[in-house]
Amino acid sequence: MISKENIKYYVFIAFITILIYKFIDSPENLLSNIKGLFIILSPFFIGILFSLLINPFMVFLEKKFNIKRILSLLISYIGIFLLVSICANMIIPSLINTLSTLLKEIPYCIDTLHTVFTKHISHLDILKLLIYKIEDGLNILLKELNNLSSKTSTDILNYILSITSLFFNILMGIILSFYILYDKENIILSCKNLLYAITTTKKANSFLEFFKTFNYIFYHYIVGRILDSLIIGILAFLGFKFIIKIDNAIFLSFIIFLTNIIPYFGPFIGAILPISMTFLYSPLKALWVFVFIFILQQIDGNIIGPKIMGDQVGLSPLWVISAVLIGGSLFGILGVFLSVPFAALIKICLGKYINNQINIKDSK
Fold first, then answer.
1. Which letter, b or e, does each residue of 324-348 get, where b requires 16 or more Cβ atoms within 10 Å of its Cβ?
2. Is the pLDDT assigned to residue 5 strictly greater than 60?
3. 24 is a domain residue
4. Where are the transmembrane segments (predicted)?
5. For 197-232, what is each residue's pLDDT tens digit?
6. What is the pLDDT of residue 283?
7. How many angstroms separate the first and last alpha carbons of the chain?
8. Which residue segment(s) compose the domain that 95 sits in?
9. With CB atoms 3.0 to 4.6 Å apart as the test, which of 110, 155, 334, 354 could cross-link to 151 if both were Cys?
10. Is 49 domain-assigned?
11. Would you say residue 57 lies in a domain?
Protein backbone atom coordinates (compact mmCIF):
# COMPACT_ATOMS: atom_id res chain seq x y z
CA MET A 1 0.00 0.00 0.00
CA ILE A 2 1.27 3.43 -0.95
CA SER A 3 1.75 5.65 2.10
CA LYS A 4 0.67 9.27 2.38
CA GLU A 5 4.31 10.41 2.36
CA ASN A 6 4.98 8.49 -0.87
CA ILE A 7 1.94 10.08 -2.53
CA LYS A 8 3.26 13.55 -1.66
CA TYR A 9 6.67 12.58 -2.99
CA TYR A 10 5.25 11.28 -6.29
CA VAL A 11 3.06 14.37 -6.71
CA PHE A 12 6.07 16.62 -6.14
CA ILE A 13 8.18 14.65 -8.65
CA ALA A 14 5.35 14.82 -11.20
CA PHE A 15 5.02 18.58 -10.70
CA ILE A 16 8.77 19.13 -11.19
CA THR A 17 8.72 16.86 -14.26
CA ILE A 18 5.88 18.86 -15.82
CA LEU A 19 7.72 22.12 -15.15
CA ILE A 20 10.90 20.79 -16.76
CA TYR A 21 8.93 19.50 -19.77
CA LYS A 22 7.15 22.83 -20.19
CA PHE A 23 10.43 24.70 -19.97
CA ILE A 24 12.09 22.46 -22.57
CA ASP A 25 9.03 22.40 -24.84
CA SER A 26 8.23 26.12 -24.66
CA PRO A 27 10.61 28.10 -22.43
CA GLU A 28 9.29 31.47 -23.64
CA ASN A 29 5.72 30.69 -22.54
CA LEU A 30 6.81 29.32 -19.17
CA LEU A 31 9.02 32.33 -18.44
CA SER A 32 6.30 34.74 -19.57
CA ASN A 33 3.81 32.99 -17.26
CA ILE A 34 6.25 33.25 -14.35
CA LYS A 35 6.78 36.95 -15.11
CA GLY A 36 3.02 37.46 -15.41
CA LEU A 37 2.43 35.82 -12.03
CA PHE A 38 5.19 37.94 -10.52
CA ILE A 39 3.61 41.12 -11.95
CA ILE A 40 0.21 40.17 -10.50
CA LEU A 41 1.70 39.45 -7.07
CA SER A 42 4.15 42.37 -7.14
CA PRO A 43 2.02 44.58 -4.79
CA PHE A 44 2.16 41.78 -2.20
CA PHE A 45 5.92 41.37 -2.63
CA ILE A 46 6.38 45.14 -2.35
CA GLY A 47 4.17 45.16 0.74
CA ILE A 48 6.21 42.42 2.41
CA LEU A 49 9.43 44.21 1.44
CA PHE A 50 8.24 47.50 2.95
CA SER A 51 7.07 45.64 6.06
CA LEU A 52 10.48 44.07 6.62
CA LEU A 53 12.25 47.40 6.11
CA ILE A 54 9.92 49.52 8.27
CA ASN A 55 9.42 46.98 11.06
CA PRO A 56 12.73 47.82 12.87
CA PHE A 57 11.83 51.54 13.01
CA MET A 58 8.36 50.73 14.32
CA VAL A 59 9.68 48.33 16.98
CA PHE A 60 12.36 50.84 18.05
CA LEU A 61 9.76 53.61 18.54
CA GLU A 62 7.44 51.32 20.49
CA LYS A 63 10.16 50.11 22.86
CA LYS A 64 12.05 53.39 23.22
CA PHE A 65 9.10 55.75 23.74
CA ASN A 66 6.41 53.26 24.81
CA ILE A 67 3.89 54.49 22.22
CA LYS A 68 1.00 52.71 20.54
CA ARG A 69 1.35 50.78 17.31
CA ILE A 70 -0.67 53.17 15.17
CA LEU A 71 1.40 56.17 16.30
CA SER A 72 4.74 54.41 15.75
CA LEU A 73 3.59 53.38 12.27
CA LEU A 74 2.51 56.90 11.35
CA ILE A 75 5.81 58.37 12.58
CA SER A 76 7.80 55.74 10.64
CA TYR A 77 5.92 56.28 7.38
CA ILE A 78 5.91 60.07 7.65
CA GLY A 79 9.63 60.10 8.47
CA ILE A 80 10.47 57.90 5.46
CA PHE A 81 8.20 59.98 3.20
CA LEU A 82 9.94 63.20 4.29
CA LEU A 83 13.37 61.63 3.76
CA VAL A 84 12.43 60.46 0.25
CA SER A 85 10.95 63.89 -0.55
CA ILE A 86 14.13 65.68 0.55
CA CYS A 87 16.29 63.32 -1.53
CA ALA A 88 14.03 63.72 -4.57
CA ASN A 89 14.11 67.51 -4.19
CA MET A 90 17.91 67.35 -4.29
CA ILE A 91 18.31 64.73 -7.03
CA ILE A 92 15.63 65.69 -9.60
CA PRO A 93 16.99 69.22 -10.32
CA SER A 94 20.47 67.72 -10.64
CA LEU A 95 19.10 65.10 -13.04
CA ILE A 96 17.45 67.77 -15.22
CA ASN A 97 20.65 69.82 -15.22
CA THR A 98 22.68 66.72 -16.13
CA LEU A 99 20.42 65.86 -19.08
CA SER A 100 20.50 69.41 -20.40
CA THR A 101 24.30 69.44 -20.10
CA LEU A 102 24.46 66.10 -21.90
CA LEU A 103 22.40 67.43 -24.81
CA LYS A 104 24.67 70.46 -25.09
CA GLU A 105 28.00 68.64 -24.78
CA ILE A 106 27.47 65.66 -27.11
CA PRO A 107 27.69 67.74 -30.34
CA TYR A 108 30.84 69.42 -28.98
CA CYS A 109 32.31 66.00 -28.18
CA ILE A 110 31.58 64.79 -31.71
CA ASP A 111 33.26 67.87 -33.21
CA THR A 112 36.29 67.42 -30.93
CA LEU A 113 36.69 63.77 -31.88
CA HIS A 114 36.39 64.65 -35.55
CA THR A 115 39.02 67.39 -35.22
CA VAL A 116 41.45 65.12 -33.38
CA PHE A 117 40.88 62.44 -35.98
CA THR A 118 41.49 64.65 -39.00
CA LYS A 119 44.59 66.32 -37.54
CA HIS A 120 46.43 63.51 -35.85
CA ILE A 121 45.29 59.96 -36.59
CA SER A 122 43.54 59.99 -39.95
CA HIS A 123 46.36 57.91 -41.47
CA LEU A 124 45.77 54.94 -39.16
CA ASP A 125 43.10 52.64 -40.59
CA ILE A 126 42.25 50.83 -37.33
CA LEU A 127 41.86 54.06 -35.37
CA LYS A 128 39.95 55.52 -38.30
CA LEU A 129 37.40 52.72 -38.05
CA LEU A 130 37.24 53.12 -34.26
CA ILE A 131 36.61 56.86 -34.49
CA TYR A 132 33.91 56.33 -37.10
CA LYS A 133 32.20 53.84 -34.81
CA ILE A 134 32.39 56.24 -31.85
CA GLU A 135 31.05 59.11 -33.95
CA ASP A 136 28.22 56.95 -35.26
CA GLY A 137 27.32 55.88 -31.74
CA LEU A 138 27.33 59.44 -30.41
CA ASN A 139 25.29 60.64 -33.39
CA ILE A 140 22.71 57.92 -32.81
CA LEU A 141 22.55 58.80 -29.10
CA LEU A 142 22.12 62.48 -29.90
CA LYS A 143 19.42 61.69 -32.44
CA GLU A 144 17.53 59.55 -29.94
CA LEU A 145 17.74 62.23 -27.26
CA ASN A 146 16.54 64.90 -29.68
CA ASN A 147 13.70 62.69 -30.93
CA LEU A 148 12.23 62.08 -27.48
CA SER A 149 9.72 64.84 -28.10
CA SER A 150 8.62 63.31 -31.42
CA LYS A 151 7.36 60.05 -29.99
CA THR A 152 3.97 58.91 -31.21
CA SER A 153 0.90 59.23 -29.04
CA THR A 154 0.82 55.43 -28.65
CA ASP A 155 4.39 55.35 -27.32
CA ILE A 156 3.64 58.18 -24.91
CA LEU A 157 0.43 56.47 -23.76
CA ASN A 158 2.24 53.14 -23.18
CA TYR A 159 4.95 54.94 -21.23
CA ILE A 160 2.38 56.77 -19.08
CA LEU A 161 0.49 53.51 -18.45
CA SER A 162 3.65 51.66 -17.39
CA ILE A 163 4.65 54.48 -15.03
CA THR A 164 1.09 54.63 -13.65
CA SER A 165 1.10 50.85 -13.11
CA LEU A 166 4.43 51.06 -11.29
CA PHE A 167 3.21 53.82 -8.97
CA PHE A 168 -0.06 51.95 -8.38
CA ASN A 169 1.82 48.78 -7.38
CA ILE A 170 4.09 50.76 -5.05
CA LEU A 171 1.09 52.55 -3.51
CA MET A 172 -0.77 49.27 -3.00
CA GLY A 173 2.38 47.74 -1.53
CA ILE A 174 2.73 50.62 0.95
CA ILE A 175 -0.93 50.27 1.99
CA LEU A 176 -0.57 46.50 2.39
CA SER A 177 2.61 46.93 4.42
CA PHE A 178 0.79 49.30 6.79
CA TYR A 179 -1.91 46.71 7.54
CA ILE A 180 0.63 43.88 7.74
CA LEU A 181 2.64 45.76 10.37
CA TYR A 182 -0.43 47.02 12.24
CA ASP A 183 -1.74 43.48 12.74
CA LYS A 184 1.49 41.51 12.40
CA GLU A 185 1.11 39.45 15.60
CA ASN A 186 -2.34 38.16 14.58
CA ILE A 187 -1.15 37.50 11.02
CA ILE A 188 1.86 35.53 12.27
CA LEU A 189 -0.32 33.58 14.73
CA SER A 190 -2.88 32.77 12.01
CA CYS A 191 -0.15 31.59 9.65
CA LYS A 192 1.35 29.40 12.38
CA ASN A 193 -2.03 27.85 13.22
CA LEU A 194 -2.72 27.18 9.53
CA LEU A 195 0.71 25.65 9.11
CA TYR A 196 0.29 23.30 12.08
CA ALA A 197 -3.21 22.41 10.85
CA ILE A 198 -2.23 21.33 7.33
CA THR A 199 1.08 19.59 8.05
CA THR A 200 2.94 17.69 10.74
CA THR A 201 4.51 19.40 13.74
CA LYS A 202 8.00 18.47 12.55
CA LYS A 203 7.48 20.00 9.10
CA ALA A 204 5.79 23.07 10.58
CA ASN A 205 8.76 23.62 12.89
CA SER A 206 11.13 23.20 9.95
CA PHE A 207 9.20 25.78 7.93
CA LEU A 208 9.20 28.25 10.83
CA GLU A 209 12.94 27.76 11.21
CA PHE A 210 13.28 28.41 7.48
CA PHE A 211 11.27 31.63 7.81
CA LYS A 212 13.45 32.82 10.71
CA THR A 213 16.53 32.18 8.57
CA PHE A 214 14.92 34.03 5.67
CA ASN A 215 14.05 37.01 7.86
CA TYR A 216 17.58 37.15 9.32
CA ILE A 217 19.37 36.88 5.96
CA PHE A 218 17.01 39.23 4.14
CA TYR A 219 17.01 41.93 6.80
CA HIS A 220 20.74 41.89 7.49
CA TYR A 221 21.69 41.65 3.83
CA ILE A 222 19.36 44.39 2.55
CA VAL A 223 20.03 46.78 5.44
CA GLY A 224 23.76 46.07 5.20
CA ARG A 225 23.86 46.72 1.45
CA ILE A 226 21.87 49.94 1.78
CA LEU A 227 24.01 51.23 4.66
CA ASP A 228 27.23 50.34 2.84
CA SER A 229 26.01 52.00 -0.38
CA LEU A 230 24.84 55.07 1.53
CA ILE A 231 28.33 55.57 3.01
CA ILE A 232 29.90 55.11 -0.43
CA GLY A 233 27.39 57.54 -1.96
CA ILE A 234 28.18 60.19 0.66
CA LEU A 235 31.93 59.74 0.16
CA ALA A 236 31.41 59.96 -3.61
CA PHE A 237 29.45 63.20 -3.21
CA LEU A 238 32.16 64.74 -1.01
CA GLY A 239 34.85 63.72 -3.48
CA PHE A 240 32.95 64.89 -6.57
CA LYS A 241 31.86 68.18 -5.00
CA PHE A 242 34.88 69.33 -2.99
CA ILE A 243 37.90 67.46 -4.41
CA ILE A 244 37.22 67.09 -8.14
CA LYS A 245 34.63 69.91 -8.17
CA ILE A 246 32.16 68.71 -10.80
CA ASP A 247 28.78 70.40 -11.17
CA ASN A 248 26.40 67.41 -11.14
CA ALA A 249 27.90 65.83 -8.01
CA ILE A 250 24.53 65.09 -6.35
CA PHE A 251 23.13 63.12 -9.27
CA LEU A 252 26.34 61.21 -9.99
CA SER A 253 26.84 60.27 -6.32
CA PHE A 254 23.21 59.08 -6.24
CA ILE A 255 24.02 56.81 -9.20
CA ILE A 256 27.02 55.49 -7.25
CA PHE A 257 24.79 54.83 -4.21
CA LEU A 258 22.05 53.11 -6.22
CA THR A 259 24.25 50.84 -8.32
CA ASN A 260 26.50 49.91 -5.39
CA ILE A 261 23.57 47.99 -3.89
CA ILE A 262 23.97 45.49 -6.75
CA PRO A 263 26.81 43.09 -5.83
CA TYR A 264 29.83 42.70 -8.14
CA PHE A 265 28.26 44.34 -11.23
CA GLY A 266 26.97 47.45 -9.47
CA PRO A 267 30.24 49.29 -8.79
CA PHE A 268 31.35 48.85 -12.42
CA ILE A 269 27.99 50.02 -13.79
CA GLY A 270 28.01 52.96 -11.39
CA ALA A 271 31.49 54.01 -12.52
CA ILE A 272 30.65 54.18 -16.24
CA LEU A 273 28.14 57.05 -16.10
CA PRO A 274 30.15 59.52 -13.95
CA ILE A 275 33.32 58.91 -15.97
CA SER A 276 31.65 59.16 -19.40
CA MET A 277 29.56 62.22 -18.50
CA THR A 278 32.52 64.06 -16.99
CA PHE A 279 34.59 63.19 -20.07
CA LEU A 280 32.15 65.11 -22.30
CA TYR A 281 33.21 68.46 -20.89
CA SER A 282 36.55 67.72 -19.19
CA PRO A 283 38.67 64.66 -20.06
CA LEU A 284 41.15 65.58 -17.31
CA LYS A 285 38.43 65.63 -14.65
CA ALA A 286 37.11 62.33 -16.05
CA LEU A 287 40.54 60.84 -15.36
CA TRP A 288 40.37 62.11 -11.76
CA VAL A 289 36.84 60.69 -11.44
CA PHE A 290 38.15 57.31 -12.61
CA VAL A 291 41.01 57.39 -10.08
CA PHE A 292 38.71 58.52 -7.27
CA ILE A 293 36.08 55.83 -7.98
CA PHE A 294 38.80 53.16 -8.18
CA ILE A 295 40.16 54.20 -4.76
CA LEU A 296 36.61 54.37 -3.36
CA GLN A 297 35.85 50.84 -4.57
CA GLN A 298 39.04 49.53 -2.98
CA ILE A 299 38.09 51.16 0.33
CA ASP A 300 34.60 49.70 0.08
CA GLY A 301 35.76 46.21 -0.85
CA ASN A 302 38.51 45.95 1.76
CA ILE A 303 37.37 48.12 4.69
CA ILE A 304 33.77 49.42 4.69
CA GLY A 305 32.04 46.40 3.12
CA PRO A 306 33.60 43.72 5.36
CA LYS A 307 32.99 45.84 8.49
CA ILE A 308 29.29 46.35 7.72
CA MET A 309 28.35 43.23 5.77
CA GLY A 310 30.75 40.58 7.04
CA ASP A 311 29.66 37.29 5.44
CA GLN A 312 25.91 37.71 5.76
CA VAL A 313 24.89 35.30 3.00
CA GLY A 314 27.84 32.91 2.78
CA LEU A 315 27.78 32.71 -1.02
CA SER A 316 30.71 32.32 -3.36
CA PRO A 317 31.14 34.86 -6.19
CA LEU A 318 29.81 32.28 -8.67
CA TRP A 319 26.56 31.94 -6.72
CA VAL A 320 26.18 35.71 -6.41
CA ILE A 321 26.85 36.45 -10.09
CA SER A 322 24.53 33.64 -11.22
CA ALA A 323 21.79 34.84 -8.87
CA VAL A 324 22.04 38.44 -10.11
CA LEU A 325 21.95 37.37 -13.77
CA ILE A 326 18.99 35.00 -13.34
CA GLY A 327 17.06 37.36 -11.04
CA GLY A 328 17.58 40.30 -13.38
CA SER A 329 16.54 38.37 -16.50
CA LEU A 330 13.37 37.03 -14.88
CA PHE A 331 12.18 39.86 -12.64
CA GLY A 332 14.03 42.98 -13.77
CA ILE A 333 15.56 45.48 -11.37
CA LEU A 334 13.72 44.07 -8.34
CA GLY A 335 15.12 40.64 -9.14
CA VAL A 336 18.64 42.09 -9.28
CA PHE A 337 18.30 43.59 -5.79
CA LEU A 338 16.61 40.59 -4.14
CA SER A 339 18.22 37.66 -5.94
CA VAL A 340 21.21 37.26 -3.60
CA PRO A 341 19.31 36.68 -0.30
CA PHE A 342 16.97 34.26 -2.08
CA ALA A 343 19.97 32.43 -3.54
CA ALA A 344 21.40 32.19 -0.02
CA LEU A 345 18.14 30.60 1.17
CA ILE A 346 18.17 28.13 -1.72
CA LYS A 347 21.75 27.18 -0.86
CA ILE A 348 20.85 26.68 2.82
CA CYS A 349 17.84 24.52 1.92
CA LEU A 350 19.89 22.44 -0.52
CA GLY A 351 22.61 22.01 2.09
CA LYS A 352 20.12 20.82 4.72
CA TYR A 353 18.43 18.46 2.27
CA ILE A 354 21.74 16.94 1.16
CA ASN A 355 22.90 16.52 4.78
CA ASN A 356 19.59 14.88 5.73
CA GLN A 357 19.82 12.46 2.80
CA ILE A 358 23.40 11.57 3.74
CA ASN A 359 22.37 10.98 7.38
CA ILE A 360 19.47 8.78 6.26
CA LYS A 361 21.76 6.68 4.07
CA ASP A 362 24.38 6.42 6.82
CA SER A 363 21.76 5.28 9.35
CA LYS A 364 20.74 2.46 7.01
1. beebbeebeebbbbbbbbbbbbebb
2. no
3. no
4. 7-24, 36-58, 70-92, 156-182, 222-244, 250-273, 280-299, 319-346
5. 888 888 888 888 888 888 888 877 888 888 899 999
6. 82
7. 22
8. 43-182
9. 155
10. yes
11. yes
